[in-house]
Amino acid sequence: MRWIYLSLIILFALATLIFALQNLEVVTVSFLRFEVRAPLALLVIVVYLLGAATGGSLLALLRRSYAGSRRSVMGSA
After folding, report:
1. Mind listing the pLDDT tens digit for each residue in 24-39?
2. DSSP helix/strand/coil, 55
3. How far apart are CA 54 and CA 8, in angstroms?
């Protein structure tokens, strides 16, 4: 099973490398008054990492809130 995971990680890394090499053109992204000019691959990676960080934080917050509400319901019953 470890070899399957390792193979998947290697395939994902290769696909990411191919994507980065094929998307080197510089693009402009505007948000409100801010403009960023950077390679498309870099912007996609940054947005992905920001999404993973915020999504993980939100999931952890929801789990903690759910666990806390279950404890308070169980304690009062």
Report:
1. 899 999 989 999 999 9
2. helix
3. 25
Which DSSP category does 24 fall into? -
27 Cβ contact list (under 8 Å, min separation 6): 37, 38, 39, 40, 43
Angle at 50 between CA 45 and CA 53, to 5 degrees: 125
Report the number of secondary-structure helices (H) and strands (E) in the chain: 2, 2
Taking a C-beta distance cutoff of 8 angstroms, is the pair 41, 19 a contact? Answer: yes
- SS3 label, residue 66: helix
Q: What is the pTM of this model?
A: 0.54
Identify the bridge partners of residue 35 per DSSP, sorted by sequence position: 30
